[in-house]
């Protein structure tokens, strides 16, 4: 074996050694970064408890979601059309909202109202397009029982797709309002979102959770982000919604955070061209 050949053998051996070392360091660095993020989150959660902020189990698992578009069902749309087949109630459709009053009140158990109302919602002669909705205990109160429209497996967290049953003091449902999101389209491929844990930590770091308060629930759903200039469509994104109750005053507030980029969402919308989103 000549000297030059030996040199090449040693060169490739050292090159292979460098690749192995570099790969191991990369894996180690990724582990350190992930571990550091987890440690920082644990420290912040401890700070929250020190500030008398209480909360239940918080999930650190990553979720996924879409950019979606759709439009609120209007007069002569799917909801208005389906409402013509309803029985035992007086209905009126106006401002993209169906309003209905039952001929006879419906008794419900205030602790488990969904047991009776599920039967109602799944009956197409009682509730229009009811198969698209699910009971949402987080958004419900003793006087208003909320069913949210499910879009790509998640609830609509704003009023573009909800049934809101009104309950009187005798625990009877007397009427309801309903909206429906129609023509739902996926604008961009499924994308990873931040975790529930990261959403809570982010809200605390940005002073959105007051001391001496309780996080009652944190739910991932779709919320309206933008109004568009294309056929009156709106853009919807995955949103973590947290409900926070101040222990002293009893004040309750709901805060929304963009699950893609951690931006705290305000009750304002801007205009966008959905064709541009489709091209990205």
Number of helical regions: 5
Helical coverage, percent range? 25-40%
Provide the gyration radius in Å.
26 Å
CATH level 1 class label of the largest domain: Mainly Beta
Structural class: alpha+beta
Please state roughly what percent of the residues sit in beta strands, choosing from under 5%, 5-15%, 15-25%, 25-35%, 35-45% or over 45%. Answer: 35-45%
State the end-to-end distance: 57 Å
Question: Quick one: overall form?
Answer: globular
State the domain count: 2
Explain what this protein looks like in three dimensions.
The chain has helices spanning 3-50, 78-83, 113-121, 196-205, 274-279; strands at residues 53-54, 64-65, 68-72, 89-94, 97-107, 133-135, 144-151, 154-155, 162-167, 172-178, 181-186, 191-192, 213-228, 234-246, 252-258, 264-265, 271-272. The chain is of the alpha+beta class and 280 residues long. The protein folds into 2 domains: 45-67 and 187-279, Beta Barrel (Lipocalin); 72-182, YycH protein, domain 2 (TATA-Binding Protein). The strands form 3 sheets. Strands 1, 3, 11, 13, 14, 15, 16 and 17 form an 8-stranded mixed sheet that branches. Strands 4, 5, 6, 7, 8, 9 and 10 form a 7-stranded antiparallel sheet that branches. The protein has a two-stranded antiparallel sheet with strand order 2-12. Strand 6 (133-135) and strand 7 form a beta hairpin. It is globular.
């Amino acid at each position: 074996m000549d000297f030059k050949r030996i040199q090449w053998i040693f060169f490739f051996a050292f090159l292979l050694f460098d690749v192995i070392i570099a790969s191991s360091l990369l894996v180690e660095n990724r582990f350190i970064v992930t571990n550091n993020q987890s440690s920082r989150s644990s420290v912040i959660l401890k700070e929250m408890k020190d500030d008398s902020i209480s909360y239940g189990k918080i999930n650190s698992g990553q979720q996924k979601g879409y950019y979606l578009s759709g439009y609120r069902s209007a007069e002569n749309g799917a909801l208005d059309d389906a409402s013509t087949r309803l029985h035992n109630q007086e209905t009126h459709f106006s401002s993209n909202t169906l309003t209905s009053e039952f001929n006879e009140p419906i008794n419900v158990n205030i602790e488990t109202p969904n047991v009776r109302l599920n039967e109602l919602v799944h009956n197409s002669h009682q509730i229009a397009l009811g198969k698209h909705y699910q009971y949402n205990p987080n958004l419900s109160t003793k006087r208003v029982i909320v069913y949210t429209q499910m879009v790509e497996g998640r609830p609509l967290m704003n009023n573009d797709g909800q049934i809101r049953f009104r309950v009187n003091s005798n625990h009877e449902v007397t009427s309801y309002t309903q909206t429906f999101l129609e023509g739902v389209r996926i604008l961009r491929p499924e994308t990873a979102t931040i975790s529930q844990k990261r959403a809570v930590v982010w809200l605390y770091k940005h002073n959105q959770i007051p001391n001496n308060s309780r996080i009652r629930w944190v739910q991932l759903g779709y919320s309206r982000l933008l109004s568009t200039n294309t056929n009156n469509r709106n853009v919807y994104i995955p949103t973590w919604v947290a409900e926070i109750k101040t222990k002293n005053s009893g004040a309750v507030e709901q805060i929304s955070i963009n699950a893609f980029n951690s931006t705290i969402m305000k009750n304002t919308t801007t205009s966008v061209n959905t064709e541009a989103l489709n091209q990205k």
